[in-house]
């Protein structure tokens, strides 16, 4: 087995590193500094044709979607640990949170980051930032109403928490942590206490 990840700290490859530690897998992690311009250059585009992070290789098989990669790792190399299948009663919830972390919330957090921090100031559009903030509030409201006072999204920690937890990290670093409700903030704090998160988020190039 040759599982190789090119990891850019703080980006979505963090989901894969975090899942790797939680699943007890021995990933070969090459850590590089995040530089958007370099992701668009031909040598990187050969690795990931859409010029984004992550990029992961299982031998000569390549994957570029973070949530798909963690599900792949759990099912192919960790006997389904931290995952759920159709025989579990919470399979629907599991799938929904896995997707909600990226398809549901990922776009809005990208807009928030872009129009408040990442884009050059002259390209930022305040109306886009406000729109993304409004949508994000709705998403975070749904999350808040689904969480309890302790524990995780399902009956125990799962990959769904990695999908959602990483997006909450982006909500925080986009300086929108104040949009989180009390339960969500406490949930994120619980996730941040996990050894897998601590080790993954400490990796530097
Ligand atoms: N849906 C993709 C999103 C990948 C993505 O947007 N990655 C960001 C970093 S977190 C990126 O590479 N941005 C560079 C850019 O858009 O130029 C995933 O979850 O893997």
Describe the fold and architecture:
The protein has 205 residues and is α+β, with helices and mostly antiparallel strands. It has 2 domains: 3-83, Glutaredoxin; 91-197, Glutathione S-transferase Yfyf (Class Pi), Chain A, domain 2. 56% of the residues lie in helices and 8% in strands. The protein contains 10 helices and 4 strands, in the order βαβααββααααααα. The chain has a 4-stranded mixed beta sheet. α1 (13-23) packs parallel to α4, α5 packs parallel to α8 (159-173) and α6 (106-118) packs parallel to α8 (159-173). The longest helix has 21 residues, at 126-146. The chain is globular and about 45 Å long. The model has no long low-confidence stretch (mean pLDDT 97). The structure holds glutathione. Glutathione binds next to α2 and α4.
Summary of the model, kept short:
The chain has 10 helices and 4 strands.
CATH class of the largest domain: Mainly Alpha
Oligomer: single chain
Percent helix range: 55-70%
* Proportion of beta-strand residues: 5-15%
Kindly name the structural category.
alpha+beta
**Ligands bound, unique:** glutathione
Global shape: globular
State the strand order across the main sheet.
2-1-3-4
Q: List SSEs in N-to-C order.
A: EHEHHEEHHHHHHH
The number of E-state strands comes to 4
Distance between the amino and carboxyl termini:
24 Å
Output the keywords.
4 strands, 205 residues, 4-stranded mixed β-sheet, Glutaredoxin, 2 domains, Glutathione S-transferase Yfyf (Class Pi), Chain A, domain 2
Element layout with pairings:
Layout: E1 3-7, H1 13-23, E2 28-31, H2 36-39, H3 42-47, E3 55-58, E4 61-63, H4 66-77, H5 91-104, H6 106-118, H7 126-146, H8 159-173, H9 182-192, H10 195-202
Parallel strand pairs: 1-2
Antiparallel strand pairs: 1-3, 3-4
Helix pairs in contact: 1-4, 1-8, 1-10, 5-8, 6-7, 6-8
Bound molecules: glutathione (GSH).
């Amino acid at each position: 087995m040759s599982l190789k990840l090119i990891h850019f700290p703080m980006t979505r490859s963090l989901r894969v590193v975090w899942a790797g530690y939680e699943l007890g897998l021995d990933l070969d992690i090459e850590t590089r500094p995040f530089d958007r311009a370099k992701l668009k250059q031909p040598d990187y585009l050969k690795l990931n044709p859409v010029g984004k992070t992550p990029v992961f290789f299982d031998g000569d098989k390549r994957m570029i979607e973070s949530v798909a990669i963690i599900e792949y790792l759990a099912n192919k190399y960790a006997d389904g640990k931290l995952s759920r299948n159709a025989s579990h009663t919470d399979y629907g919830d599991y799938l929904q949170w896995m997707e909600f972390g990226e398809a549901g919330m990922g776009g809005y957090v990208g807009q928030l980051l872009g129009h408040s921090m990442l884009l050059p100031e002259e390209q930022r559009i305040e109306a886009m930032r406000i729109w993304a903030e409004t949508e994000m509030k709705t998403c975070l409201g749904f999350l808040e109403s689904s969480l309890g006072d302790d524990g995780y999204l399902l009956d125990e920690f799962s990959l769904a928490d990695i999908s959602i937890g990483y997006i909450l990290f982006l909500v925080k670093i986009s300086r929108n942590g104040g949009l989180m409700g009390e339960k969500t903030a406490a949930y994120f704090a619980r996730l941040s206490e996990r050894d897998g998160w601590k080790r993954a988020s400490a990796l530097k190039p």
